Amino acid sequence: MAGFPGAHAERSDADYVVVGAPLDRSTTYQPGTRFGPGRIRAVAESFEDYDHHTDSRFTALDVHDHGDVHPGGDVEEYLTFLEGVVGDADRDGAVPLLLGGEHTVTVAAVRALEPDVFVCLDAHLDLREEFGGDPYSHSTVTRHALSVAEEAVILGARAGSEREWERAAAADVTVVPPEEVPDWDPAFDREVYLSVDIDAADPGFAPGTGTLEPFGLDPATMERVVRTVAPQAVGADVVEVNDQDDDQAAVLGAKLARSVVFAHADARTDR
Predict the structure, then answer these.
(1) For the chain, what is the domain count?
(2) Range(s) of the domain holding residue 211
(3) Quick one: average pLDDT of 165-182?
(4) What are phi and psi for residue 97, nearest 5 degrees?
(5) Per-residue pLDDT tens for 217-243?
(6) Residue 199 labelled as part of a binding site
(7) Domain assignment present for 158
(8) Which secondary structure element, helix H or strand E, spans residue 263, and what is its range?
(9) 122 annotated as ligand-binding
(10) Chain center to CA of 261
């Protein structure tokens, strides 16, 4: 498996650790998220090294690619192991960046990093207790995150069950609808975990995802959010990319993953 293009640092020297998490077990429409990490790495090969927003080069940043953590038969065991990998990166002083894989992998990272705020770009609320009897369905991620984080901010949400919308009305959840995301400005100054579910994008931009939902975000809006939130992030992920399109979703996901690193590193330099 080829590593993330531009990642070259040894693990001991890394400021950022890329971890592939190709879990693909609970997708409700289009499967294929097991191919997400590989597709994201492959398409990133075409990107310019230089980022004009931060006047920096990706290859000048200390990024290490851990490779993929492959799932076994039991999802709870897998999440526990993945939590350990993410926690190790954090303890070594690096910012973990997960490449999914279905959104369930986010649960492991949030448990490992214990952020104050869970910020998620997502078409769906993901506040279910379970789906089809599965308490670790990809549609339960925000609920799991709220067992660790003090609050959740869901940007671009436009779908959920009646009970999910009722739960979303509680004080610890903020839902920003797609039409308001371009003007959204974070009002917190605490540690954040940033999760990018690629289905936050309108399917016209990223059809290669499991559960498509029209009337979503445009890529420029998503990048603005990522670059705004990344400086406060203790970890991040890009999830729900599959192989069911011509790599539109993977290209967007790869670009947003790099934007996390560029924006976080730039803020670290300014401190």
Answers:
(1) 1
(2) 16-270
(3) 98
(4) -130, 105
(5) 999 999 999 999 999 999 999 999 999
(6) yes
(7) yes
(8) helix 248-270
(9) yes
(10) 13
Which residues touch 42 (CB under 8 Å, ≥6 apart)? 2, 247, 250
124 is known to lie in a ligand binding site: yes
Compute φ and ψ for 3, nearest 5 degrees: -75, 175
Q: What is the pTM of this model?
A: 0.97
The CATH number covering residue 58 comes to 3.40.800.10
Tokens of 57: 């080069």
Question: What is the structure's pLDDT at 81?
Answer: 97
Q: What is the pLDDT of residues 5-47, one digit of tens each?
A: 999 989 999 999 999 999 999 877 889 999 999 999 999 999 9
Assess if residue 150 is contained within a domain: yes
**Residue whose pair of structure tokens reads 């971890």 in the numeric block:** 19
Amino acid symbol at 182:
P
Question: Is 6 a member of any domain?
Answer: no
Q: Which two tokens stand for residue 158?
A: 């436009």
Is 134 marked within a binding site? no
197 annotated among ligand-binding-site residues: yes
Strand partners, 68: 20
